[in-house]
Amino acid sequence: MSGLTEGVGFGTTEITVARANSRILNRFLFYVLTEDRFKQLGKSAMTGAGGLKRVPDLFTKDFSFPLPSLAEQQQIIAFLDHETSQIDDLIGKQERLIELLAEKRQASITHAVTKGLDPTAPTKPSGIPWLGAIPAHWTQKPMCHYMAGRVDYRGATPKKTDDGIFLVTAKNVRKGFIDYSASTEYVAVEDYDSVMSRGIPAIGDILMTMEAPLGNFALIDDPKVALAQRVIKFRPKAELVPAFAAYAANSPYFQAQLEERATGSTALGLKASKLIELRLTAPSRDEQQRIVDFLDTAVRRIDGLMQRAKAGISLLLERRSALISAAVTGKIDVREGAAWL
After folding, report:
1. What is the 3-state secondary structure (H, E, C) of 285-340?
2. Whether 203 and 308 share a structural domain
3. Is the pLDDT of residue 50 over 60?
4. What letter would DSSP give residue 257?
5. Of the residues 18, 157, 222, 257, which has the maximum number of CB atoms within 10 A of its CB?
């Protein structure tokens, strides 16, 4: 529908303009239209396929709801404005907490993989401006020199099936883990050997996305998977702890090297010839393992706090939704405002 309200023009079929009449206050109508019952009815009335589903015009025209007097509408508005603002404030604090925890998580990883765990260790210049000094006993060399082998799966687009062996695509490779829910694709069991003829994965192999997205690193945690295009698989030498490499490669100092060498306008990518230029800094294998053990514990604790904060936000959103629904449908009586002001 098209329309004009408050000097704003609308000329698209994706927007419906709802304008209150003399029997309903604008903000009360807003709360009615954000109430779960309206949303659920809208979802059930949607037509179309995939991402093109839409609510038919008749749904919004025929939607009915109980309408109290203007005076009671105003009391409901005052109640909901008061209550939802408090809930929104609590949600904002939880979101800020999540941001701070995410910053602490990244800072802990970055410090551990570039400075180590001993603050008294002598240092030396790294030669990388954004990295600064590193422990003097650490080694710095091209990442490829830490690897026993590399398999580039770019350009290989296997035939996909509805079931079979899970196909790990670039969408599944996140920073630090494989997200098996991000994309669920498969290759036929009988096709597996030919699809993976370039190299069968093993536990501890490192995956790197070369484009869309660029520079996500994760460890193979299930060897019975197939690998798709835009992914490179590295097999570390014995001197490199795979989990240390994944932590380091996902940290800002290594990611900055990727961004500096990336090309592309719509989606950044990295040419295979540039891999030799990516430098990885690492201590002895024993010290790498101590760093991994430290980070696993620290990250697990921070992730637990973040999950609790996210669960708290979900509960607050449920509380907010339930309050709006109860108020605009008359399930709670807000006419005596002194009880909640």
Report:
1. HHHHHHHHHHHHHHHHHHHHHHHHHHHHHHHHHHHHHHHHHHHHCCCCCCCCHHHC
2. no
3. no
4. H
5. 257
> Which residues, in sequence order, are CB contacts of 197 under 8 Å at separation 6+?
none
Q: What residue numbers bound the domain in which 169 lies?
A: 148-277
**Is 2 part of a structural domain of the chain?**
no
Domain boundary among 277, 297, 326: 277
Distance CA 189, CA 20 (A): 60
What does the block give as tokens for 199?
């190299």
CB 23 within 8 Å of CB 316: no
Which residues, 6+ apart, have CB-to-CB distance to 155 below 8 Å?
Answer: 229
Could you give phi then psi for residue 45, rounded to 5 degrees?
-90, -5
| pLDDT above 80 for 1 | no
**Which residues on neighbouring strands pair with residue 125, listed in sequence order?**
133
Q: Which residue matches tokens 């945690």? A: 221
Rg of the chain (C-alpha set): 27
Domain-ending residue, one of 277, 306, 327: 277
pLDDT confidence of 35, banded at 50, 70, 90? confident
Q: Beta-carbon neighbour count of residue 245 at 10 Å?
A: 25
**pTM metric for this prediction:** 0.82
Residue 236's beta-bridge partner residues? Answer: 147
Domain membership of residue 330 (yes or no) is yes
- For residue 20, being part of any structural domain is answered with yes
Cβ proximity of 153 and 227 under 8 Å: yes
Residue 5 lies in a domain: no
- Write out the E strands in the chain: 2-5, 8-11, 123-125, 133-135, 139-142, 147-152, 165-168, 186-187, 206-210, 214-219, 226-227, 231-236, 279-282
